[in-house]
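Friendly challenge for the regulars: who can give me the structure tokens for this chain first? No prize, just bragging rights.
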Amino acid sequence: MSEADFKLGQSTGTWETNSVAAATSILNDRNLRHYDLTGSFQRMADIIGRDFPNIRRIVAIVPLFQHGDTHVLRRRQMAEKLAQAARPLREMTVAECARAADRLCEPGPVEIMSEVVWPMTNRILSVVSGTTRRVDVLPLLDGSPGLNKYRKLDQDIAAGLAELAERFPEETEDQIGVRLASSLIAGQALASTLGVNLLEQLRRADDTPLGALDWSDDFTSTGVLSAERLPANGDPLVLWPGAQPVKSVIADLTCFLTEDPDANRTGMFGLGAHRCLGAGLSQTIWRQLVSQLRGRTARVTFVESPPLPSIGIGLPSIIRIHVANDQL
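First reply, four minutes later:
Bragging rights claimed.
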């Protein structure tokens, strides 16, 4: 890695890179870890005198926020949940993608995120989590400030844990936490990636048959735009001899979807120890959805979608289209 691969970030104390080689090196580096949210919430509690115990409980379970032996344990727990649910996940995916495609063909206005993407995502992930409850975890993932957001998130997590404890009384608190954690983080990542890939094609629709759009079997965009890494030992990060010390480095995951001959498209799911556990499932869902959309004759017109962020999670808030009756 060299200075040519990086630029100083928008936030103080970070380097950013959109180089495939640099991003690959950073994501595979076992001496780097994701942001320490457990420590962050402890420092916040100490400063403001207000704790968020339910957020901290979930953060302590999500593999993304762990390092070392704890990370290995939590990742194994999540992987076992996915493996145990493999068959029902396949069955639910087929049913939900057919339902989603049918909704996209119903004449009239359609708001894709609230009427298609989120319901489909929540129902598929409920096979693993046991709940279709949606909790907005973006404040955890993008560092959004505001006590009100954290307070609401803490309350929503508490309600989700209580619901699951009642539904699965034989399970331990830790098992219940793993259920909810598997849904919260996976849901945001999956919904954002499904959303941006649908948006990429539907932007081009102008009274166009749905099946005539250029649907690809592979993702061509990612909703998880970047990954931040910092030294596991807490020291300043020096990326190359003589480099300015910083607190962290941010890798642009969209670089893996470029025409760079060294880019491996699956890098959009991350690399190394923190590679997304749901990568295979999300690809299966997308391919099943695309297979349902091809050949559909309903004519669709793109209406609107607000601009997406350029870093962090690119979750579309709204995607509006209008569907004409294909019989007219």
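Residues 18 and 255 are 6 Å apart (CA to CA). The chain has a mean pLDDT of 89. Your move, everyone else.
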